[in-house]
Design brief:
The chain has 461 residues and is an alpha/beta fold. It is built from 17 helices and 14 strands. It starts with 22 loop residues before the first helix and ends with a strand. The model has no long low-confidence stretch (mean pLDDT 96). The structure holds ligand PLI. Ligand PLI binds next to helix 4 and helix 5.
Length: 461
């Protein structure tokens, strides 16, 4: 692929000041935060690459739409405007809003767990998805291609399902014990890596063979569609909308954190293709958990902003620039020898910290150690995606060793410029040069669920 990167397809109309701190300040701030950057105040972060979730900039059309927001509890105009957009994009019959992705998960996943001892199989479960699978009394099995774990080797679709294993798992566990197949597009946890259309069709064929429900976890479905267009020849001339529609045709349920490819700061989507009984169950349970089915935890303003954002996220110029920003940062790091998940995915550059700091054992969280150093270096806040995040086995309570120890440099949408990404690259490269001196971290306090959010750590002596 050429080394040109698309310039911003927008101009800046409003700015938010960000502040650089001194190294001395950051040493103290990080210590006070228990060596867990989740506990830093964002005002103490210069460039915030913790997440691309709800952190993007809205367009003038979205801000205008906020003013249209109709704050009715039941049956607002905002709800019907959003419903129309969701139905047009997905082609599905039913739509319920939720306050964000995990809200959608907590409503839908338990409805599919009809007895004890069931499993969801995904290319890779996101952490909240895994948590809701487990809270629903089921178990989560990841089933991604091996190429995903070889970060240095090029593969265009590292998010793909391992089709042979998928069928083996179904046969081994018994089809009646499979609650559903979750297609996570893009595959966040392993690098925002796309899943090919060919692989989605093959996965759907297996689901059909065994009569299984297919769920799309589509927080970044538009980015996935753009990768399909770029990397799968048969789709080069298809529109993003048509590619996305072909993907939706293959599933029964669409769950979306609208804080990513909805270009919204808050929101979630439950869309159901045609299963009326499932829709009725979700409509029932959403009321006590998220809110009345025509707002599901969202305000009218947010629903209107999302209705516009969903359309903008399908624009090709926007998507090309988005993926080029990620590729730019990845190329800068690769050129300096920093090991990253290659090729870069849709929303972040993932640095391979098993290769970066091989002297730190998995239960001293090598990627967390690198994350902390990058913050100390330049006030940049990345996030760990590795053994620290993965947590403990729910049956044995042992630390699970993640196959990948990644530091995610997550790029918010329409927010930072290429100059900011240079600051990030320089910081990571500086830490890479002194990688042999890095030390691991250990727990001072470990919460029982989703520990990475609120744990306190300290450097290993
Ligand atoms: O953060 P939520 O509750 O709106 O969405 C949960 C969620 C579900 N699926 C996937 C693939 C996600 O990436 C996801 C949230 N991701 C976050 C917060 C992230 O930083 O990647």
């Amino acid at each position: 692929m050429d080394k040109k990167y698309m310039a911003e397809p927008y101009r800046i109309k409003m700015v938010e000041s960000i502040r650089q701190t001194t190294k001395e300040e950051r040493i103290k701030l990080l210590k006070d935060a228990g060596y867990n950057p989740f506990s830093l105040r964002s005002e103490d972060v210069y460039i915030d690459l913790l997440t691309d979730s709800g952190t993007g900039a809205m367009s003038q059309e979205q801000w205008a739409a906020l003013m249209r927001g109709d704050e009715a509890y039941a049956g607002s105009r905002s709800f019907y405007r959003l419903e129309k957009v969701v139905k047009a994009i997905t082609g599905y019959k039913y739509f319920i809003p939720a306050h964000q992705g995990r809200g959608a998960e907590q409503i839908v996943l338990p409805q599919l767990v009809t007895k004890k001892g069931m499993y969801f199989i995904s290319n890779m479960h996101f952490d909240t998805t895994r948590a809701h699978v487990e809270l629903a009394g089921a178990r989560a099995i990841d089933c991604v291609v091996d190429e995903c774990f070889n970060t240095q080797e090029y593969h265009p679709f590292k998010g793909n399902f391992d089709l042979l294993r998928l069928e083996q798992i179904i046969q081994e566990k018994g089809k009646d014990n499979i609650a559903g197949i979750i297609m996570t597009i893009t595959n966040n946890s392993a690098g925002g890596q796309p899943v090919s259309m060919e692989n989605l069709h093959a996965t759907k064929a297996i689901a059909d063979k065994y009569g299984l429900t297919v769920i799309i976890d589509g927080a970044r479905y538009a980015e996935n569609a753009f990768f399909v267009k770029q990397r799968e020849a048969a789709y080069a001339n298809k529109s993003i909308r048509a590619i996305a529609k072909e993907v939706f045709d293959m599933a029964d349920v669409f769950l979306m954190s609208a804080k990513k490819d909805g270009l919204a700061n808050m929101g979630g989507i439950i869309a159901i293709k045609e299963d009326e009984a499932l829709f009725q169950l979700c409509r029932t349970y959403i009321v006590p958990m998220e809110g009345f089915p025509t707002y599901g935890g969202m305000s009218g303003r947010d629903m209107d902003a999302l209705a516009v954002g969903l359309e903008e996220a399908l624009e090709e110029d926007y998507l090309l620039h988005r993926l080029d920003q990620v590729r730019y940062l990845g190329d800068r790091l690769r050129d300096a020898g920093v090991p990253i998940q290659y090729p870069t995915g849709g929303h972040a550059v993932f640095v391979d910290c098993k290769v970066f700091a091989p002297h730190i054992p998995f239960d001293q969280f090598p990627a967390q150690a690198v994350v902390n150093e990058v913050y100390l270096e330049a006030g940049v806040r990345p996030v760990e995606i590795g053994s620290f995040l993965l947590g403990r086995d729910p049956d044995t309570n042992e630390n699970i060793e993640s196959p990948l120890e990644l530091m995610r440099l997550t790029i918010p949408r329409r927010t930072y410029t290429y100059n900011h990404l240079d600051v990030v690259a320089d910081a990571v490269i500086a830490v890479y040069k002194r990688r042999h001196d890095l030390k691991g971290v250990e727990f001072e306090y470990e919460p029982p669920v989703l520990r990475h959010f609120t744990a306190r750590l300290k450097p290993v002596k």
